Amino acid sequence: MSEWTGVLDLAMENRQGRSVAKSVYFQGAFKVMRPVYLNNYSYPCYYLLNPGGGYLDGDRYRMEITLDEQAQLTLTTQSATKVYKTPTRQVYQESVFHMKKGSYLEYLPDALIAYKDAKYYQKNIVHMEKGATLLYSDILTPGWSPEGEKFSYDMLRLKTEIYMEDELVVFDHIKLHPASQHMNGLGFMEGYTHLGSFIVVGEKTNDDLLDRLHETIQKEAGDFAFGLSKLAVPGFTIRIMANYTQVIERIISACHHVISDKWYQTKPSFLRKY
Amino acid sequence: MTNHALSLFQLCDSNFPTGSFSHSFGLETYIQKDIVTDAKSFFEWLNVYVHEQLAYADGLAVRLAYDALEAEELEDIWELDRILTVQNLARESRDGTQRMGDRMLDIAQSIYEIPMLSTYMRKIRDKQAFGHPAIVFTMVGHHLQVEKETTILYYLYSTVVSLVQNAVRAIPLGQTAGQKIIYAFQQQLQQATDKIMKLDEEEFGVVSPGLELSQMQHERVGIRIFSS
């Protein structure tokens, strides 16, 4: 199937130390705003927007992002992604990233809100060359439902594949399907409603960083549970279960600060828009 | 049961020295948190672990690896070895499984002398493969001409028997209670096998958030008798 509801292609290059777009193309219900160079950084932040205000039945989105050698980019959304009920065909979103040597990508979208009877399938494929650095997060949240049920969406499926020099190094597959899973039960969401993930691939990852991230997260307030573990390549995953988007955002942001400080002696930009 | 199936059964013995006695795959985290405290709560954990994690990863991998061996599509096997390893985002579970795969391969190779096992060993030595017990087990099952479905069932059984033995030591439970769980779980094993036989390949590697968290958290639990 080739008809897409929205398509976005963005290619970044490093021009004398400054990361700029080599090409930007978007079509249909997928747009990016003009890049913002926050904090006088040498690389921009692009905000994705979905002019329709949400994903509807059968919508299909495709995004392809290319980062040339040493190019850097922050990519986020302007607001939460809302998936409404999909009575006939699931919403599908596919994102492909190509990261050349030494490139740096932060892809930190806002939360996904899945309303009653929503069915959503997301596929992220990342191709990295050695020395590239990736910070990726997502947050899955249940939307308000008229009956007040906690999990009224039909299904959320997120697959993330990360390749390093053409070899698969990370495979993550989350499937939340309340009709067939005991969402509150042992092993599933265990009483929580929101699920956050933060996957980082970077050569500078070491045990000291993981210890500091662990300490940082433990100091965060609020009711949540988390796990933190190293990947098969230098990098790690943080998984967080909580009841509020803000709790997960705060934890991811705190960890982002630790990474920026340890690796680049900088502070990440404040991305949130409200 | 054919004699061939009996040979495969040797790999299911919890005394078969793969090192499975030192891996709880997150169970110990639940024990430390007083969530798994007795036979009933352990049964619940085992149920979720087998149906919601093992089935989607190892279980489906046994089926796909068996098909690949039948079709002599070796590249598919090495791809499975890789995806099985990298989908395990909890380091201890991933590394532990790899060590178990390595040992199972070593012993199986000295018993059966299956050419495919030597190929697998060479791949691992050359760092072109990781080593995974589900793949080794399938290679042996296929070589012994044990049916695919039976191979899946036995693989699940072998995992469950080791986990029950570990639960008996760690919770602790009586030996009789442990045997009763293994017996009562037979129905679950059959159900899980049926599910695996019908699973769409797209479903590979689905993970349950709570289970995964417990496996990651195990790295930092206070008192540990298991290494995962």
Which properties best describe this structure?
heterodimer, A: 274 residues, mainly beta, ten-stranded mixed beta sheet, seven-stranded mixed beta sheet, globular, B: 228 residues, mainly alpha, Urease accessory protein UreF
Question: How would you describe this structure to a colleague?
Answer:
The complex is a heterodimer of chains A (274) and B (228). Chain A has a domain at 6-192. Chain A is built from 2 helices and 17 strands. Chain A has helices spanning 207-219, 245-264, and strands at residues 6-15, 18-28, 31-32, 45-49, 60-67, 72-77, 81-83, 91-99, 104-107, 112-114, 119-128, 133-142, 155-164, 167-176, 194-201, 224-230, 235-242. Chain A is globular and about 55 Å long. Chain B is mainly alpha-helical and 228 residues long. Chain B has one domain (25-206): Urease accessory protein UreF (Orthogonal Bundle), CATH 1.10.4190.10. Chain B contains 10 helices and 1 strand; from the N terminus they run H-H-H-H-H-H-H-H-H-E-H. Chain B has helices at residues 3-9, 27-32, 39-71, 74-86, 91-112, 115-125, 133-143, 148-170, 175-198, 209-217, and one strand at residues 206-207. Chain B is globular and about 45 Å long. The chains are: A mainly beta (274), B mainly alpha (228). Chain A binds chain B through residues 167-175, 181, 185-190, 195, 214, 225-232, 237, 239, 241, and chain B through 30, 35, 41, 44-45, 48-49, 52-53, 56, 79, 82-83, 85-87, 89-92, 94, 203-217, 219-220.
